[in-house]
Amino acid sequence: MNASWTFVGNAVHAAAFFAMTIVLAKLGSPEDVGRFALGLATTAPIFMLASLRLRDLQAIDVNQEYVFGDYFALRLATTVASLLVITLIALLGGFDVEMKLIIIATGASKALEAISDAFYGLFMQQERLDRSAKSLMLKGPFSLLLLGIGFYLTHSVFWGVVGIVVARAIIMLGFDTRNLRVSLDPNADLAGQILPRDLPKARWHLRTMGRLLAVSLPLGLVTMLISLHANIPRYFIEGYLGSYQLGIFSAITAFQKVAPTVVQALGRSAAPRLAKYHATRNARLFKRLTLRLLGIGALLGAGGMLVAFVAGRPILTLFYGPEYALPELFTLVMGSAALDYLATMVLFSVTAARYFRIQLPLHVATTTAGALACYLLVPTWGLWGAAVALTATYLVRFIGTGIAAIVAIRELSR
User: What is the number of structural domains in the chain?
Assistant: First the structure.
């Protein structure tokens, strides 16, 4: 049941996010799509670092080493720090006025998402993934609606992003907070309340926060590097080719974002079980579930490549317009996505085995390979160079995570 709820919730949210690109492409221009993508590319790695993978850590904290207030306090602290960093980048980064505003507004939307994510960690730990799934099912379409209204009325990407901020704030305060209160206190009386009277409280115990930070920081760095894998080509495209080409590339790669939400949903629903198998040293079941996740990732990746190869041109023309119809590039992009799905599935097993230290050097190597490939290929091959670089990046990541998983399973079998 948890897997079903998670699948549906993430699928609806992913579809809504994908539809945002379609709305901007249909109502605006590739430059508008490029500006929206640059806002996300600028803020995403910072907030991925700030997340510290606390949601996943809380889900596998089977011994209740930390309480919710510890996770929440650390998440609030890193979220505020991230907003400050993003504001400085926007103001000092040499962007035009509208792009500065887009980056700051996108940072605000990410901050609200981070707070909700802190709540989701408790839902995962209690195996009540229906609560986070329902939140995503409300948040995605509502954000899409307000983005569309804001952009349609003003023809400004900034006001479209402001719509996302408003939507996420309403869902976080009116829905997520109520579910959190029930998770913390099943006897809480919320009938007739628009907002809970008692908002969630952080536990500001600095020594405990420091210990939790020491455990989670390597995972946060890894998550930031994973975000950079996808966004480094966007930085090079913006720098060498401009916002128009960035809009084309971002629209095509948006198809990559549909299946990963399913991958994340299935992986997160399996993470507590993987952690239990590892804690009880049940190597057979740990390996079986890992292979099952890997098989699902392979099926999703192969399906995406097949669709892109057979019907890439009509799909791109239908969703975006004729200027986006580059089917060969689409097929290559979906090939890189297939490698990403496989690596992501394996990473859940590596994390459940508490192989934290190996992940940082692995993803440093992956990010370095991706940046070098972009540096060599994008100036001469353009969008094709970016797609090839993305493929090389995910290939390195899959090989590295695969080796780590094999080592974990062998150690567990001893």
Answer: 1
